[in-house]
Amino acid sequence: MSTIGVDIGGTKIAVGLVDDNGELRATTAAPTPADGARAVLAKAAALIAELGGKPTAIGVGATGVIDPIEGVVRSATGILPGWQGTPVRAELSRLTGLPVSVDNDVRAFALAEAGLGAGRPYGRVLYVSVGTGVGGALTEDGRLVRGARGTAGEIGHLLVSARGPISCGCGRFDHLESVAAGSAIAVAAGESAVPAVVDRMRAGDDAARAVITHAATVLGRALAGFVTAVDLDAVVIGGGVSRIGAEFHNPLAGALRADVRPPGRAMPVLPAALGADAPLIGAALLARDAT
Amino acid sequence: MSTIGVDIGGTKIAVGLVDDNGELRATTAAPTPADGARAVLAKAAALIAELGGKPTAIGVGATGVIDPIEGVVRSATGILPGWQGTPVRAELSRLTGLPVSVDNDVRAFALAEAGLGAGRPYGRVLYVSVGTGVGGALTEDGRLVRGARGTAGEIGHLLVSARGPISCGCGRFDHLESVAAGSAIAVAAGESAVPAVVDRMRAGDDAARAVITHAATVLGRALAGFVTAVDLDAVVIGGGVSRIGAEFHNPLAGALRADVRPPGRAMPVLPAALGADAPLIGAALLARDAT
After folding, report:
1. pTM exceeding the 0.95 threshold for the entire prediction
2. Do B232 and A263 touch (CB under 8 A)?
3. How far apart are CA A231 and CA A151, in angstroms?
4. Residues of A in contact with B222 (CB under 8 A)
């Protein structure tokens, strides 16, 4: 039995066929259409048909605030035009004839890392995704913790002691996301995106290195307070910015260990293990868990 | 069947006889001896004997970092001389001939409010205790959540966007405790303790009011980020500083609601219901839960 994972982001739709062992058997991708939600889902359905295989269910990890019970996009301000309110489950199910599960892309990433990646050996784990923004998800024994109102794991709004160069999605400048997000790193370094900052750092530019170290350090310090109060078994760091590697991970983990209460110093702070395919694999796991 | 609750603080030892319904049937108290842990426990045993009744077990809520499994004080820097390392369970059990359970006083407070107070109707609840410091505890369905390393609920080390007038217990000045603790309020207002600040505020002193409002607002904003990421059913605010009343609670709850992600605005933010006796009652519940 294989399932389809779909990762719908602001710039790209990726689709993968995932087997029973969570292995990606085939993938395809296309730019996200900019002319509305109907075109996005039609493109996803076309990519699924193109992949073939005999999938029995579809899981979607999508950008925005997702209601996984109804399979609807609750909020997607400024990400995808017309995405808010889209009944992803109903519409994609109609287009493909298959059962569809939907959740947020960060939760899909967490589910993949919890089941098949860095978080596998641990009970209660926080997954942090640092990309354009800062997101997160909590799992317990490999399953997503959804919380009372569906925001569990959303660490981007944690208060921090530094002021960021961009506003958090909610408008504040003293939230974690305003300091540690990829877009904050780019703006702080005067670049349009993180890779240009990384290129400068690796060419020996101390200012670029300082910007990346600062973002990682503030993230580590915010996580230290959070981890002390929630008292988790492990933290896994993923997302595009985390793939900078040691120059981002080491100051983050160092700041976390320096600030966390002493018992927490033994807690593992791990880089994500599945790379950029994690949300796709996790989306397929969403489908598998639902059937 | 009745149980004994003991609340051991830096200045006072209180002892209560609690019946099956969690009602306090008799109480007594004495200043905490300043000449070492042995004297503290001897005084507690004398107060227990003085109360009489036919208690079947003793629960102790004590200041400091407590290991509830071993019943030992792990850390108590600067609170009670010689308290660190004290085997409270073994020693008090030897002195009284009764089984003894021990935990931190903030956890005892939370257990009481969860079982008999403001948190009773809710599933996952954060209890905040604002006294000399800032502490907290988490409960799920009326039971304490201890976490992976025993620090669950310790919110005093959450990072905040204001610098406090005192250092946090861990040495930082940008942790919640350094801004919102009673000792921070007193220092910020140039007083030796919170009641003097409250007196000035009620006499119309705007500077005193601003100090209290600032502490409450920063606490509310820090909780907003935390509550979004942990996604709880309710937050209960207690401790000596919270008993200032509406002048503290309203700016706190207002800042929390203004900053929390929209689904969290419906989450109740409640004042504790059991007053200063909560740690004593909770300590007795610790004993009852253990037997």
Report:
1. no
2. no
3. 18
4. 159
